[in-house]
Amino acid sequence: MQAVQFEYGLTGKWLELLRELAPGIKRVAVIWGPDLAAGIGQFAIIQAVASALGLEVTPFKFHDIAETELGLAAFAHSGDGGLIVTAASVLANRELFIELIARVKLPAIYPVRRFVDLGGLMSYAADFDAQAAARADEVIE
User: Fold this and answer.
1) How far apart are CA 41 and CA 53, in angstroms?
2) pTM, two decimal places
3) Are 28 and 75 in contact, with CB atoms under 8 Å apart?
4) Looking at the domain covering 8-112+122-140, what would its CATH class be?
């Protein structure tokens, strides 16, 4: 199981990278977990950075995949949106979200590399595998 990073400095970078990838975005949907402290912190950072970049933020509190799909499809209809999937939201539903986001055709950034390994567009996070390997090497030495 891959660890989840909650480094809030990385959270702000998600918006910057998404904008580099899709310079025409004006709105960003954020799938986040409001029941987790990390989700609240990540969403607050996203709101602050979005304001500085002149981007509108639309929160999607994940509760149900069908409801989320309908909301994202409506959001994607205008064509000027992007998506951030936070670390505190949908880690248990990776494959479903990658498929859903591909269907609604939103440029998206994910919280961990595993999403990209499964077909997601891009991620930005600490490299947990490299960190674990480095710690293992230290223990062995």
Assistant:
1) 19
2) 0.80
3) no
4) alpha beta
Return the residue matching tokens 């409001």. Answer: 34
Collapsed DSSP state (helix, strand, coil) of residue 26: coil
Residue found by looking up tokens 């000027």 in the block: 80
Query: Domain spans of the chain?
Result: 8-112+122-140
Return the number of other C-beta atoms located less than 10 Å from residue 87's C-beta. Answer: 25
**In the chain, where does DSSP find H-type helix?**
8-21, 37-53, 65-76, 94-104, 113-117, 128-140
Cα Rg of the chain (Å, integer):
15
Q: What is the pLDDT of residues 45-80, one digit of tens each?
A: 999 999 999 999 998 877 677 888 888 899 999 889
pLDDT digits (tens, 9 = 90+) for 97-129: 788 888 888 999 988 788 888 888 888 877 655
